[in-house]
Amino acid sequence: MGLGTLEVPLELFALNRRRLVERIRPNRPENAIILLQGGNEVPFYDTDTTYNVFRQESYFMWAFGAIEPGCFGAIEVSTGHAHLFVPHFPKSYAIWMGPLHTPEDFSKKYGISNVHYSDEIAAVLKKLNPSVLLTLKGVNSDSGLTSEEAKFDGIDKFQVDNSVLFNEIADLRVFKTDLEIEVMKYVVETSSAAHRKVMRFAKAGRSEYQCESEFLHYCYGVGGCRHISYTCICASHTNAAILHYGHAAAPNDSLFDMGANYFGYAADITCTFPVSGKFTADQKLIYEAVLAANLAVFEAAKPGVSWADMHVLSIKTLLTELKKGGLLKGDVDAMITAGLGAIFQPHGLGHLLGLDVHDVGGYLENQPARRTHPRGIDKLRTARILQERMILTIEPGCYFVDILLDEALADPTLSQFLEPEVIKRFRGFGGVRIEDDVLITKEGVVNLTKVPRTVQEIEDWMAGKDDEKYK
Length: 471
What we know:
It is an enzyme of class 3 (hydrolase). This protein has 16 helices and 17 strands.
């Protein structure tokens, strides 16, 4: 991007193509070709403007790194040779868009020898004479949406197989290369610094949208991150109990869930802190209960451990701490069995992270299926066994959501564990979430996130201390 930002090497994408070919080659017919279609710009309803700054489709980005819309990419499985197909614009486009780039320009830009115009795709593929075109088609287990399968005029003249590629490439995306890890570290560090800036910016009288703006400005102005990975969740006071909140009003105690995006790679960090700079006794109680859950997972997670078991561990830790704080009573294991954890944390512990904020590969064939017990674990976006090179979020939370509290108090099985008068004190409290982006290594977990986490660290940072700690 610019001075001080990270240069993403073209080898990152070339390596991903080689990994894909190595995965596909053993069981595919000779002369098979992988075909991926990039994203297209989306018009703003019926206007001639686009909805947003274009961001490339993630599978295509993973393999080719091309950031322009309207592209295709092909990989010869037998040789690994790559072909990039770019839009062929009329000369008049140069009036509005500047000098038009040639295939040779794109070849130099992306390190791909074979670059053609997209209107030549049928002719080029015909010369290559593939035995089969392997296209991408599968259902995203988070959204329920089906990936866009490559299509072009003349594809009906080729044999097409869309049953193989999705599971293979989605699984490869779960495990990050060293080059990908460096980009992930950069975007997480940029997002961390932006969060730290917001923590000091947020003051009584300032609005949530102003805090969001401060985050966005830092990520783009300093980190070169033109995109964010999802709509910022900038929630103050009772809004912090709304899991996917937009923005409005003015801050009290604040939950900010925000992450930058750099060349497609996502960060996803949540910080919760008191705008006053000092935790009240109740804020400290709930915050430290969530932090205990976060740290319990951080200490236990390692290769070979079930992510679903980590979800249960976080819930058990949270309920134990709430019991110590006087909100709950009774046996914690019985609380988990009854489903009480989902009353206070209705979302999953965390998710895979990469080119999508809720990255792919969570529930693939031959991987652990989605669990249904205890209540709430079905919201977990993956139940995979942890392995080296996975990057995930650890994001336990505790929220006081009226509709869920009312349900629990009215349910004899759940209400036996509640202390109603203490629960009443926390009505309108909002919520706390602590979200870190972590890398699974041979030794365990490496936290990529660099923000104040303990009560003391947060209070010191907001008081203007500890600048040297994060340099």
